[in-house]
Design goal:
231 residues; alpha+beta; OB fold (Dihydrolipoamide Acetyltransferase, E2P); Trna Endonuclease, Chain: A, domain 1; 2 domains; six-stranded antiparallel beta sheet; 16% helix
Length: 231
């Protein structure tokens, strides 16, 4: 997944009202859009180096969008809107082992009355529903965690995947760690115990859980390594 615009470096001042961040770029301060509804625990520190892109769309009120925060010399991608684009590129390139033998990829597939799954991947009679989650949290060195806040939306997605399983679909949850300093992935059961409990039940009912980290460059973000999962 390549960035459309060249990224600009700045210094984080503060985040507020969830979707706003003030960033110092050179000698001026700008207000940028923060495309992440999570808590971004551990990343929102004054003085952290950040990367933004600037839109040339005249209709946009906020010209800048926050893309990456650097914390302790580790780059962390915080734009949740890019996660599916990273995965879509990887699926087309055959990077994800579980789906290498499948060739039809449909994003944003409606299921039921009130649910959309991120991808339907299929070939002939085999149909797989894939839900993707963005991961930025790492409280212990080398370990990535999800979620970083209580997630009712995450609970709903697991419940809907289980319904899909009963209708003959293979079901998958893919955690994308938008950082490259973690060798393991765990569920943050202390942050959201209900999510953890439901995930344990879902795994017993054949929900397959995958996890990959990402590699950053000046041009974009790509899926990198298959990460060990502890559930």
């Amino acid at each position: 997944m390549n960035f459309k615009e060249t990224l600009i470096t700045g210094e984080l001042i503060k985040r507020y009202k969830r979707f706003f961040v003030d960033v110092k770029i050179g000698h001026k301060t700008v207000t940028a859009h923060c495309p992440n509804t999570g808590s971004m625990m551990g990343l929102i520190k004054k003085g952290n180096k950040v990367w933004l892109n600037k839109s040339d769309n005249p209709k946009r009120k906020l010209k800048y969008t926050l893309q990456i925060i650097e914390d302790k010399k580790i780059k962390v991608g915080i734009n949740t809107h890019l996660t599916n684009k990273i995965v879509f590129s990887a699926l087309n390139e055959g990077t994800i082992d579980a789906f290498k033998d499948l060739d039809e990829i449909k994003p944003e597939v409606k299921f039921g009355d009130n649910t959309r799954f991120d991808f339907l991947i299929s070939k002939k009679k085999r149909k797989c529903l894939l839900e993707v989650k963005n991961v930025t949290l790492s409280r212990n060195k080398g370990i990535a965690e999800f979620p970083d806040a209580i997630t009712s939306r995450g609970l709903k997605h697991i419940q809907e995947l289980l319904k899909a399983r009963n209708k003959g679909f293979e079901i998958y949850m893919l955690y994308i760690i938008q950082r490259d300093d973690c060798k393991k992935f765990e569920l943050a059961k202390d942050i959201d115990p209900e999510y953890y409990k439901l995930m344990l039940k879902a795994v017993k009912k054949n929900l397959k859980v995958l996890c990959y980290d990402c590699k950053f460059s000046s041009k974009g973000i790509k899926l990198n390594r298959n990460i060990q999962i502890k559930i």
